[in-house]
TrEMBL record:
InterPro entries: YdjO (IPR025916). This is Cold-shock protein. Pfam families: YdjO.
Length: 70
């Protein structure tokens, strides 16, 4: 008998897309954010350093509710 074992639904993964991101130029900082969520000042929220534009392959998310599929 297996108590507590429920049928697990598989949650669909969002497709990966190439997105523009802003990445921190600081040597000791790994901060980055999607360009669509960045503020106008384009400063790193972690260290306050300058940011540069890059392209990364990331999962697609919905900007309005931050959860894919709902």
């Amino acid at each position: 008998m297996a108590f507590g074992r429920r049928n697990q639904m598989e949650i669909p993964k969002p497709p990966d897309v190439e997105k523009n991101v802003l990445s921190c130029e600081g040597d000791d900082c790994n901060g980055w954010m999607r360009e669509e969520f960045a503020s106008e000042d384009e400063l790193c929220p972690l260290c306050g350093g300058s940011m540069k534009k890059e392209i990364r392959t990331l999962p697609e998310i919905d900007k309005n509710n931050n959860f894919y599929g709902r």
